[in-house]
Amino acid sequence: MKKIALFLSLLITSFAIYSFVNSPPEELAINAALPQADYKMKDVSGKTVSLNDIKTAKGLLVIFSCNTCPYVKLSEARIKEYSDYCLANGIGCALINSNEGQRAEEDSFDEMVKYFGAQKLKCTYVVDEKSQLANAFGATRTPQCFLFNAKGLVYKGAIDDNVKDAAAVKAPYLKDALTSLTKNETPKTQETKSIGCTIKRLE
Fold this sequence. Notes:
This protein is α+β, with helices and mostly antiparallel strands.
């Protein structure tokens, strides 16, 4: 009986450790401060930047994205539109590629550079090594948005309510949140569920 009890205890402990290691951290809460703000990442320009370098006095939009996810591809025009909107309105914007598990494939740095150029993006697009920033945010999906004002997180979640068909969108969550930010107002909707591919962390 003692051997069985010991085996069960070890099994439960091992499962708990596995779950802790393989489960992403808790998602960032509304009003939370910008995490890992000084963490340096390589941008497609070749420069090394941090979120502190990218944010402005008005705020910062962070979108966890990549080159490969079908949901990102469906959202490309919207990501381009809202990232350009940020830059035009004095809001920092960073696309974060945390797909460390695919870094030797289509989410390599060289492929990111090609993708950035093909999409004619103007914002920052950086490599998140070992998914460190994704872990700090508790990000799990692509695309997944986090919008900060000068004080903290004011919106997190999906771009809108219809990732598959932009023409059928009824609730443009991110657009509304950005508009509120430019007016120094709190978004009416501050949290939604992101629909997309899982971030490919290293196992």
